[in-house]
Write a structure and sequence with these properties.
267 residues, mainly alpha, binds protoporphyrin IX containing FE
Length: 267
């Protein structure tokens, strides 16, 4: 009986493709250096969580589009819990000293998390889209196709604005028809809508709060990654070709959904 036979017993190993999964860690250093295994495993685990997050993003956008706000909130809660795990995982990498990292760093050559297309896909869904991030990948690669597709897709913010309009709020038509690849800008009329939601609509105010959690959680990851980078390589340039920590600092402090933050001062 082989695996495709309908009555073949499902085993843990087969279901999870464990033989394949456990053979995917290939240290490049001579020895190999002890800490390179941690470095590979943690990046692979991140990529798996990114995959799961993208799966949940697609669901939350579909649920909002279908006006199922309660279930959308439930999904957002799961995503936020994953995001907390992603931030917490950086603690493990911080047990690696600068010298332990240096023992194999040169073997990474130009490889860097900078080239994670799934991270860019998440950014795209959050409204941070860049042609440069798309063009970095060869035409016809899995990464390029995925990013091209995400480029065209509405962001979670767009799905949310359309949902609010269907809930009866006066979201400006120009915002509903905006180019979904453009950056999310603050907008006075949207702020008025959001203020009205917070003042008189507990259900949708909760949804807004989950989006703020998502925004803050993503920024938290950026900050913790930067500090981890600073304590591991200081101000050295990155393997991905950027200035390193100096570049990463430029990505901090930008709110994804600016109107949700701006209204707080006026409520
Ligand atoms: C010792 C561990 C790490 C070091 C020293 C490090 C260093 C860096 C540096 C210097 C950059 C800037 C780009 C460049 O390479 O020039 C960067 C970007 C990035 N890294 Fe790491 N990193 C580490 C671990 C991780 C892990 C575990 C992840 C998880 C996937 C990750 C994900 C990313 C991402 C997504 C970016 C792009 C950020 C952006 O462009 O906003 N890094 N990293």
């Amino acid at each position: 009986m082989n695996d495709s036979t309908p009555n073949a017993a499902v085993t843990y190993g087969h279901y999870l493709a464990l033989d394949e999964l456990l053979s995917l860690q290939h240290p490049r250093s001579a020895g190999p250096e002890h800490d390179e295994m941690l470095f590979i495993v943690i990046h692979q685990v991140y990529e798996l969580w990114f995959k799961e997050l993208l799966h949940e993003f697609d669901r939350v956008v579909a649920l909002l589009t279908d006006d199922q706000s309660h279930r959308a909130q439930h999904t957002l809660k799961r995503m936020l819990t994953i995001l907390k795990v992603l931030v917490a995982q950086l603690d493990i990498l911080e047990t690696m000293t600068p010298l332990e990292f240096l023992s194999f760093r040169s073997r990474l050559e130009a490889a860097s998390g900078f080239q994670s297309d799934q991270f860019r896909q998440i950014e795209f869904l959050l409204g941070v889209k860049s042609r440069h991030a798309v063009n970095r990948f060869p035409a016809d690669s899995r990464a390029r196709r995925a990013l091209e597709q995400r480029w065209e897709q509405p962001t979670i913010w767009d799905a949310f604005l359309h949902y609010l309009a269907r809930e009866g709020y006066a979201v400006p038509g120009a915002e509903l028809a905006r180019d979904v690849a453009a950056p999310i800008e603050s907008n006075g009329a949207v702020r008025e809508v959001l203020a009205a939601v917070y003042r008189g609509d507990a259900k949708n105010a909760e949804l807004c709060e989950r989006l703020v959690d998502l925004d803050e959680g993503f920024q938290e990851w950026r900050y913790r990654h930067l500090k981890m980078v600073e304590r591991t390589i200081g101000m050295k340039p990155g393997t991905g070709g950027s200035s390193g920590a100096a570049y990463l600092r430029t990505t901090l402090g930008r709110n994804l959904f600016p109107d949700l933050w701006e209204i707080r001062g006026t409520l």
